[in-house]
Amino acid sequence: MEDSTMLEASQPTFNDLTFTIIPNSLTEERQHQLADDIVTNGGTLHTFDASVGRIERLKEITHIISATSDFPDYYDSLDLFIHVIKPTWVDACLKVGKLKNPRAYSPDPALFMNDVVICCGNIPEGDKEAIAGGVLATGGQVTVALTKQVTHLVALSMDDPRCQLASDKRLHCLVVLPHWFDDCLHVGRRISERPYSFPEPEILNVTAGAIPSTRTSPQIRDATNPDPANNGLPPIPPAHVQPSRAIKAFDQKKVKLGEDLQLSGNLKGVITGLISAGGGEVTTNLDEADIYVCNYRDGQDYVKASQAEKQVGNLSWLYYLITHDVWTNPMRRMMHYPRPRDGVPGFKGYRISISSYTGEARVYLENLIKASGAEFTKTFKQENTHLITAHKQSEKCEAAEEWGVNVVNHMWLEDSYAKCKEQTLTNSKYTYFPSRTNLGEILGQTEIDRSAVEKIFFSKTRKPKPFKAVAQEHNLPASSIPKARVTSDPTAHSSPLAEKNKRTKTTRDVATPLAKRRTDGKENESPIVPGSRGAKDRALSKLHESAPDIAKFEKEMKRKGGVIHGGRRDKDAEAEDKSKKSKGRDSVGSKRSIEEVDGEEETSGDDELAEEPAKRNKKAKKDKLTPIKYRMLMSKDERWANNPEKESKDKGRMREIGLFITDDFKKVDLLCAPKVVRTKKFVSALACGPTIVSSSFLDFALKNNKLPPPQKHLLKDEDFVRTHDIHLEDAIPRAKQNQKRLLKDWTIYCSETVSGGYDTFKDIIVANGGQCQMWKGRGINNATASKRKIDRSNEVSQNQEEDEGDVLYLISEATKKEFPNWAKFRELAKKHDMIPRIVKTEWLLHVAMAQYVHWKPEWELNEEVVNTMK
User: Fold this and answer.
1) Three-state SS for 201?
2) CA–CA distance from 397 to each of 205, 400, 409 (Å)?
3) For 378-405, how does the pLDDT look when each residue is reduced to its tens digit (9 = 90+)?
4) CATH architecture, domain defined by 14-105
5) 409, CA 20 to 30 Å: which among 316, 437, 768, 852?
6) 108: CB partners within 8 A, 6+ apart
7) What are the sequence ranges of the domains in the chain?
8) In 621-694, which residue ranges form alpha helices assigned H by DSSP?
9) Model pTM?
C-alpha cells in the first residue's frame, strides 16, 4: 500500500493531461515558459495554430490555458467539460506539486472573485461564514492560515494580530473591511478596494470629499457605438500587431455583409479590401459564410446564420477585428452584437438621463439607452423617468429624489439589454450604490445573454401537434384538449389573467386528466400519470376545489364581451374575491400539494385540470384535503423498492387520511422501520423525540385506509437492546427534554475518510444542535476550539451531566494513516487548553441514540489501540 502511494507521488504533476495555449494577451516569452513547464512535468502540449484560429482536435484536450474567455472555442469547451484556466494555474500547481482546483483559476467573467484569496482576522463567525461562502461561490479561495498567497486580509482594525503579522512579514496583501465583500456580492461585480482599505478606510470617514472619478473601463474600449458606419472609414490595423501572436480573425474565413448595413460602395470596397488583406473573403452566399455582419436581430439571414451557429456580429465588432486582428466573441460586449430593431420591450416612452459618467463611458451609455428603445436626454428634467448614475453624490440625484424619478445604476440598463427584457427595480442590485465607490469602474462587464437572445430572436420553433395527435398520445377524445393551450408562437407571452383563463376553461367530457406540465422549475414532485387511479383522484380533488371558480368563469364567459370586456362586475363578487385574497394561505379551502413540507401550502395555479360534470360540485367541500396529523419518516422499509408508481400512489392515499410521509428528519412525529437501525435518517430523527412504530403501522393504514393508534404498533427490538444497550423507550423522553439541543455549543471534528461518510455524521451532529467541521490536520481559528459553557439551569442539563466542557472530540477511523492528523489535533487542543479525545463513530451513535452525553473508554482511539488490532 505504501509502495503504491510512493509511486503515485513520484508521477509528474501533469501526467496524462493534454494542453493547448491560447496566445491572446501572452508574450512569446510567457508562452515558451508555459510550454516548457507543461512538457517537463509530464503534460502533452498541442500547439495552437494562429493561422486557423480554432483549436484542432478539441475533444483530445483536457486543459485550455487562456488569459480570457475570449476565444472562438470557449463555449464548445465548456460543453465538452474541458477545463479553461488562466496561466497562473500552471504556476500554482507546480508550486505545491499537485493539481489545484481549476475553478479558482477560470477566466469566466461570472467568477469575478477568481483572483482573490482571503484570510479572515478576528471578525464574527457569521461574517466569516458569509464571506467564505460568497467568495467560494464566485470563484475565489479561502484560507485559514495567513500565507504569501493571501490577496485580501479581512479585519475590523489594524490592531488585529493577523494585521500585525502581515505587516511584520511584509506580506503583499490588501487589508480590507468586511464591507467590501458585502458590496461586491450585492452588485455582483468586483469593485475597487480603495474605499475599504486600511490604514484609513474612506467609508469610515464621514467628512470625506467628493467621490473621485474613475478610468475608462477596458470592457467598453472600441465598443461604444453599435453603428459606426457614419463615423467614416474603418481604422487601419496598427503596424505593431504581430501575426504570429494573434488569432487571425479573417484567415480562411468568408464574411457576408448584411443588407441592413446600408454601406456605400466606397466604404464596402475598403472593408472588403481589409478583410482580403487579412486572408479572408467577402461572399454573398450565406451558406458558405463563416461570419455574418448585420445591424439588427431580425431578417431571414440573421435567423439562419444564428441557428447555424455562425459568428454573428455588427459593424462595430467587425471594425474591432480589423483593428486588433484578434478574434473576440461578439456577445462579450454589448455594442458588438446586432441590436433589437424595436429595442427592449417596455423601454419605449422612457426618458433617461445619466449622471457622473464622462468620456467613453458617457458615449457608451448614451448609445445603449438609444439601442434599448428609450429616449436619452442630456438635460435632466422632471419629465424624466430614470436617472442612471455611478454614485449618488450629485445634484441630479438630489433632484431625482425630490421629483420621484427612479435612480438606478447602469447594471439595470445593461441587464435589461442583455436579456432583452426590462428588469424589475425591486431587485436591490439595481438601486444599490456602495459608499465611496464610483460604479463606472465596472461599466461594460455584462455580456449578452445567449439563451435569452436565442429564445426571443432565433429559436428553432416546432409546429404544434394537431388536437387529434395530442389526444391520441393520452388516450383522450380530441375534444378534451383545451385549444387555448396550443399556440403557434412559442415566444408569445400572455397576461396572467389570460393564463388563468386558459387553465380553468376546459371541456366537460374528459374522463382522465392530462399529465401536469412542469412549468415552475420543480423536478422532485411526483408526476400525475395518466391512467393511474391515484393521479385521477388527486386531479379530481383539485378540480372540486376549483369548481366554484370554474362556474363563475363560465357565467362570465356567457356575458356580452366576455370576462375582460364585459359590463361592470358584481360588487358582491368583488367583495368575495377580496375576502379570498385576504385569507391567503390560511384559507380553509386552500389547496395543498401532495408533496407538502413543513406545513407550507402550495398553490396549484400551474396545474391543468380536466373538468368533471357540474353535479359533482355539491361534494366539493367534502373532498378538501385532510389536515396533517402525523409526519412520518421511514427507514429501511423496502416495500416500494423499484416501484415509484406504487410509492406515489400509496403516499397520496396516506396524505389524504392525514399521514404525510417525508424524508426531512428535522420535523418528525412518527419514525417507522421494520427494526431499529442506525441509518443517518433514523439516528438524526431521534432528536425530534418521535414515536417509533413498526412497519405494521403503515401496513394497517394502507389496508384499512385509516390511521391506527401509534401506541398499538410501537417498535420493539430486543436484539438491538442486547447488542448496544440502548433503550429507546427511555431515549425518546430525553429527546423531548433536549429539544434538539443536546450538543448545543459543541464543535465536533470529523475525519474526511471516516467510515459512513463525513456528511452522515455532520447531519447527526447538526440535528442535535451542534456544529461539525472536517478535520484535515490544518490549524483552526480560536473561536472553533473554545471551551463550552455548561448551563445547568434547564432540563437539557440532566442529559449533559457527563460533559466536562473542556474536551475536544475528533471522530476518526482506526487506521495508521490517521496518525499524523491525530498528532496535529492534539496540538490544537493543547494550544487552547482543552483535552483531546479521538473517538470511534460508536461514540456519536450511542450519544445521539441514547440522547444523553456519556462516555465509555472502549470508544477511544489512539496509536496503541490501532497497533494492537488484528
Assistant:
1) coil
2) 21, 5, 11
3) 999 999 999 999 999 899 999 998 899 9
4) 3-Layer(aba) Sandwich (3.40)
5) 316
6) 69, 84, 114, 139
7) 14-105, 117-204, 220-336, 351-457, 480-516+527-559+592-625, 630-724, 736-868
8) 644-656, 680-685
9) 0.52
